[in-house]
Amino acid sequence: MKWRADKKAEILAKQPRRSEKEVNALVKKLEINPVQAPFYNKTDWTLRKIYEEDHTLLEENFRAYINGFSKNVDDIIEHFNYRATMADGEEQSRRAILNQYKECRLG
Predict the structure, then answer these.
(1) For position 18, what pLDDT does the model report?
(2) What is the per-residue pLDDT for 12?
(3) Strand, helix or coil at 31?
(4) Which of 3, 21, 100, 102 supports an S-S bond with 48, CB 3.0-4.6 Å?
C-alpha cells in the first residue's frame, strides 16, 4: 500500500538507524491510529498473502483478515453480511475470489 511505503520512507528519513522490524512496527502503529488512517486492518494479512499462503489455511487466514478491519469497515462488512457469504462459499470459489482481487491495494 502506498501509504505504508510513504510512512516507512518518512520514518527512515528522520530515523535512519531504526531496524526494519522497528520501522514496520511504527508504521503499523500509525496505521491503526484513526487520525492517520481512518480505514485500517490490524493484521499483517493482504489478499495476496492469503492467496499465496497454504490453501488449507485460506478460510482461517481470510477470517483473521476480515476480522482485523477498523470499526467503520467492519460496519460495512456486517451490513452486507460478507462473513456469511464467505462461509457459504466453497473453497475453490474463495480461492477464485482471492485470485481475482489479490492485486487490489486494500491494505
Answers:
(1) 93
(2) 92
(3) helix
(4) 102
